[in-house]
Specification:
Layout lengths: L1 E6 L2 E6 L6 H8 L17 E4 L2 E4 L12 E3 L12 H8 L8 H15 L5 H11 L7 H12 L1
Parallel strand pairs: 1-5
Antiparallel strand pairs: 1-2, 3-4, 3-5
The protein binds FE2/S2 (inorganic) cluster.
């Protein structure tokens, strides 16, 4: 099936198998390997923005994203510069194991777009619904607070 969508500001048209996951389309067809697979768990390493809403790209077929606008972790940086949230993750040591990091940042991007000044409990509640708790989240909270206080 032919699909057309915008990814990180670029238009793409592709002929894909109906059962191809959006995650695999992004990684294998577009080479956007910043979006991770967590090997079948529900941890959300594959989170991207679809029309501005954070979604798990392994839960969505590429054909379901036809006509939509996707932003992946690669789409957050501009001219090779990390955005403020990415910079805060780096500076606060919130990068965890590298697999979780892109999904965390994409999910938090959605949260900050909805609520530019979330409380700690709101941040924790948001992450509880999106990603698993494989490590402590204190540095992630500190990174978000660094962005929202600046
Ligand atoms: S790869 Fe596990 S939730 Fe997407």
């Amino acid at each position: 099936m032919e699909i057309s969508l915008k990814v990180n500001g670029k238009d793409y048209t592709a002929d894909v198998e109906p059962r191809l996951l959006l995650l695999d389309f992004l990684r294998e067809h577009l080479g956007l390997t910043g979006t991770k697979s967590d090997g079948g768990s529900t941890a959300g390493c594959c989170t991207v923005l679809l029309n501005g809403i954070s979604v798990k790209s392994s839960y969505i077929l590429a054909v379901q994203a036809d006509g939509s606008e996707i932003v992946t972790i690669e789409g957050l940086s501009q001219n090779g510069q990390l955005n403020p949230l990415q910079t805060a993750f780096w500076e606060m040591g919130a990068v965890q194991n590298g697999y979780s990091t892109p999904g965390l940042i994409m999910a938090l991007t959605d949260l900050l777009n909805r609520n530019p000044h979330p409380s700690e409990s709101e941040i924790r509640a948001w992450l509880d619904g999106v990603l698993s708790r494989d490590t402590g989240y204190q540095n992630v909270i500190c990174a978000v607070e660094m962005v929202t206080s600046g």
